[in-house]
Specification:
With 492 residues, this protein is mainly alpha-helical. It has helices at residues 3-19, 24-34, 44-47, 68-75, 108-126, 130-148, 152-183, 188-199, 205-214, 220-245, 252-285, 299-320, 325-334, 344-369, 375-378, 381-400, 410-416, 422-433, 439-470, 488-491. Its main location: membrane. It is found in: Membrane.
Length: 492
C-alpha cells in the first residue's frame, strides 16, 4: 500500500474519532464493569497495591487493642491523645488535630484511623500496583509527546493574549470548583482546592485534530488555541505541584522554593531548547553518527531516540524532587520541538512509542482511574446531580468564558479549552489516593470531568464549523502537522 493511499484513510479515521465522543468514557466504563467491584475479571492481587489490602486493619474500636498498623501510626506520634482529653467539655467541638494529608478529627480513634488510611495511600503511591504503574508511565510518555508539539514561533505571535486566556482558563475553574465544593459542605482545604485543581487542566487533542482537518492551524485563532492550551498545561503542572506540596504541614521549601526552582528550570530548559539542543544535535551529534546501510531505521534516528529517552528520564527525575515528574516530562519534550527538519523528532518518537503509549493510556483510564472510582458513590443520585452542577459551571462554563477579548473567535477558543483528558483524571485520582478528596467528592469530580469529556467535542465541532464558514475558510488545505501519522518509510 502506498503512502498516498494510506494517508487519506488515516485522516478519515482520525476525523471520525474527533467527531464522535471521546473514547475515554468508553474505556473508563469498561474498566468499571470488568474491574474488581462489579465484574471481578481482575483480581484484587493485581488491582490493589499490597498495602491497600490491609486497609481493614485501620479500624480502631478500642485504643487498648490496636492492630499492628495502628500501633505503627501510634509510634510515629502523629496523633496526641492529650489533644482530645477535653472531649467532654463544652468546647469539645474544638478538640481536634489536623495532620498532613488528613482532615479535622474529633477523637483520638478517628485520628489514628485517618492517619492509617493516609499512610496506606502514601505507601501505595510509592509502591503502586502493576496497572497503576503502567498507567502512570503512559501518562508520562503522553506529556513528553505533547511537549514536542510546542511551537515557539506561534507562541510569539499570539503569546500575550493566549497567556491571558490560559491564566483565566486555569483560575476560573479553580475558583469555581473550590467555591462549589464549599457549597457542598466540604472544607476549603484540602478538598476545595484539590477539586478546583483537578478541573483546571485543558486537553485539546480532539480540538487539534479538527483544526488540522479544517486547515486553520495557521490562523491566529488556531495559534491562540495551541499556545493557550500548552501554557494552561504549564500552569496546571505548577498548580498540581503546589497542591501536593500543601498536603502536609506548611513547608517553605516545598511550597515556595521548589515551585520557584521549577519555574527557573523551565526557563533554562526553554533557552536550551532554542539555542543549545538544535546546534548540539543537528550541528554536532548526528553528523558524527556513522551511516548504517540497508537499515530499516536510520542510525541517526536511533541515537536521537536514545537521547530523547535519556533527557526524559533526567528531567523527570529532577522535577520529581520538586513536586511532580510530569513537569520534567513536558519540558523534556519541549526540548526537541525546534529541531530540523520540522516534526522529524516527533515522527521518530511516535514510530517507536505510539502503540505502546496508546495502550498504556488505556490502562491508565481502564485501571488506574476506573478501579479507584467508588461505584456506590458514583451511582448515587446525589453524586450525579452535584457532579452535573460542577461539570456545567466549574468544568465547562468557566472555560467557555475564558476568551471574551478574542473577537469573533472567542467561542471557538473557549470551547476548544473545555476538553479534559488524562491530566485532569490523574490529579483527581492522586488527590483521592492522598486523602485530599473523599469518595463522595471524587465521584462528583469524575462526573464533572465526564460531562466535559462528552460535551466538548460535540459543541466544539459545531462552533468551529460555523466560524470557518462565516470567515470563508472552508477551502483551506488540511494541516498534517498535528496528526499522528506514521513515517513515510513505515507506511510505504
Amino acid at each position: 500500500m502506498t503512502l498516498e493511499e494510506t494517508e487519506p484513510r488515516s485522516l478519515r479515521r482520525d476525523a471520525d474519532e474527533a467527531i464522535g465522543v471521546s473514547d475515554i468514557v468508553l474505556v473508563i466504563a469498561t474498566g468499571v464493569l470488568l474491574g474488581p467491584e462489579i465484574g471481578g475479571l481482575i483480581s484484587t492481587e493485581y488491582s490493589l497495591c499490597s498495602h491497600a489490602r490491609h486497609v481493614s486493619e485501620c479500624e480502631c474500636s478500642d485504643v487498648n487493642h490496636l492492630t499492628e498498623h495502628l500501633k505503627k501510626i501510634q509510634e510515629k506520634d502523629l496523633c496526641h491523645i492529650e489533644d482530645y482529653e477535653h472531649s467532654n467539655d463544652t468546647h469539645a467541638d474544638t478538640a481536634h488535630r489536623r495532620l498532613a494529608g488528613g482532615g479535622v478529627y474529633t477523637s483520638y480513634e478517628e485520628c489514628l484511623e485517618k492517619s492509617c488510611h493516609a499512610e496506606i495511600s502514601h505507601e501505595c503511591q510509592l509502591t503502586p500496583d502493576m496497572f497503576t504503574l503502567i498507567g502512570h508511565a503512559g501518562v508520562a510518555l503522553m506529556i513528553f509527546e505533547s511537549g514536542m508539539h510546542f511551537d515557539f514561533q506561534k507562541a510569539k505571535v499570539v503569546g500575550p493574549k493566549a497567556c491571558v486566556v490560559a491564566v483565566l482558563g486555569t483560575i476560573l475553574p479553580l475558583a469555581a470548583g473550590t467555591l462549589l465544593t464549599m457549597a457542598f459542605q466540604k472544607p476549603f482545604f484540602p478538598q476545595g482546592v484539590a477539586a478546583g485543581t483537578a478541573l483546571a487542566p485543558t486537553s485539546v487533542g480532539i480540538a487539534l485534530r479538527l483544526l488540522g482537518e479544517a486547515g486553520v492551524l495557521k490562523e491566529n485563532f488556531g495559534q491562540a488555541i495551541i499556545t493557550a492550551a500548552f501554557v494552561d498545561d504549564i500552569l496546571s503542572l505548577i498548580l498540581f505541584n503546589v497542591l501536593f506540596s500543601l498536603g502536609g504541614d506548611f513547608d517553605v521549601v516545598q511550597v515556595v522554593v521548589n515551585p520557584v526552582v521549577g519555574v527557573v528550570l523551565m526557563v533554562l530548559a526553554t533557552l536550551l531548547a532554542l539555542h543549545f539542543w538544535p546546534k548540539f544535535i543537528n550541528g554536532w551529534l548526528l553528523p558524527k553518527v556513522p551511516v548504517k546501510e540497508g537499515a530499516k531505521v536510520a542510525r541517526t534516528d536511533e541515537v536521537l531516540f536514545l537521547l530523547m529517552f535519556a533527557l526524559l528520564l533526567i528531567y523527570a527525575a529532577i522535577t520529581h524532587f520538586l513536586g511532580t515528574h510530569l513537569w520534567g516530562c513536558f519540558i523534556a519534550g519541549m526540548s526537541f520541538a525546534t529541531l530540523e527538519p520540522q516534526h522529524h523528532a516527533h515522527h521518530v518518537w511516535v514510530r517507536q512509542t505510539k502503540r505502546m503509549t496508546s495502550w498504556m493510556i488505556r490502562i491508565f483510564f481502564a485501571c488506574t482511574v476506573a478501579f479507584s472510582i467508588p461505584i456506590t458513590q458514583l451511582l448515587s443520585v446525589e453524586a450525579l446531580w452535584k457532579g452535573s452542577i460542577m461539570g456545567v459551571v466549574a468544568c465547562i462554563l468557566t472555560k467557555v468564558l475564558c476568551a471574551p477579548f478574542m473577537g469573533k473567535a472567542r467561542w471557538v477558543i473557549g470551547w476548544a479549552m473545555v476538553g479534559r483528558a488524562e491530566f485532569a483524571y490523574l490529579i483527581a485520582q492522586m488527590a483521592n489516593a492522598a486523602n485530599m478528596l473523599d469518595e463522595e467528592m471524587f465521584s462528583i469530580i469524575i462526573w464533572a470531568l465526564l460531562w466535559a469529556t462528552v460535551v466538548a467535542p460535540l459543541v466544539f465541532r459545531y462552533v468551529l464549523n460555523r466560524y470557518v464558514k462565516s470567515e470563508g475558510l472552508e477551502d483551506q488545505p488540511p494541516n498534517m502537522s498535528f496528526f499522528h501519522s506514521e513515517s513515510p518509510r513505515k507506511l510505504a
